[in-house]
Amino acid sequence: MPVNVNLEFTPNPDTLKYTVNQQLLDRGAENFTESVQAERSPLAKRLFSVDGVKAVMIGPTFVTVTVTGQDKLMQVNTSMLREIKTHLEAGEPVITGPRIQSEHGASNSEAAQKIIEILDQQIRPAVAQDGGDIVFHKFENGTVYLQMRGSCSSCPSSIATLKQGIETRLRELVPEVVEVVQI
């Protein structure tokens, strides 16, 4: 099957989201903020070789690339379209070795488990549409600590999303939640 790679713009002006017509991961996302981390992803390693790439996040059917500046967008876009297509058409692996067992931080409390369930079922799919991901880190003394990845990590509207969207939703469904903060 021919590989189709399409560009989608995100709310973050420094990221580009590329959707592909095949499954890259079975679930979640893999986030690489340095080329050194990309050793276990031949695709991410390949993308980091392009001048101007600052971070790469691979989702189930998309790749989000953060660039070092908006002046690099056109140059990076041309290279990304070619590199992603070439990599996938060659049948090269996206990730080698085992994936991280748990995407979320460890927690045994009932409230934390409910928070993770809400994140996985309601919030993460929504932010993935914009090329991002949000991962639970911990729940402590009423505060939910989340890590924002992909286009969410440096998006100008991420604080509004975090406070007005995610915090509001979690407070509605989990009474123990007082606030949500980004780590």
Can you characterise this structure?
There is one protein chain. The protein contains 4 helices and 8 strands. It is α+β, with helices and mostly antiparallel strands and 183 residues long. The longest helix has 19 residues, at 110-128. The mean pLDDT is 85.
Question: Could you give a quick summary of the protein structure above?
Answer:
With 183 residues, this protein is of the alpha+beta class.
Order of adjacent strands in the largest pleated sheet: 1-2-5-4-3
How far the N terminus sits from the C terminus, by CA atoms, comes to: 41 Å
What is the H-and-E element order? EEEHEEHHEEHE
The number of distinct helices, counting runs of at least 4 residues, comes to 4
Helix content: 25-40%
**In this structure, how is the largest beta sheet organized?**
5 strands, antiparallel
The helix/strand class is alpha+beta
- What is the 3D form? globular
Quote the average pLDDT: 85
- Beta percentage is 25-35%
- Gyration radius, in Å: 17 Å
Runs in which pLDDT lies below 50 for 5 or more consecutive residues are none
Describe the SSE topology:
Layout: E1 5-9, E2 15-20, E3 30-32, H1 42-48, E4 53-58, E5 62-67, H2 73-89, H3 110-128, E6 132-140, E7 143-150, H4 158-173, E8 179-182
Parallel strand pairs: 7-8
Antiparallel strand pairs: 1-2, 2-5, 3-4, 4-5, 6-7
Provide the descriptors you would attach to this structure in a database record.
183 residues; 5-stranded antiparallel beta sheet; 32% helix; alpha+beta; 8 strands; 4 helices; 3-stranded mixed beta sheet; single chain
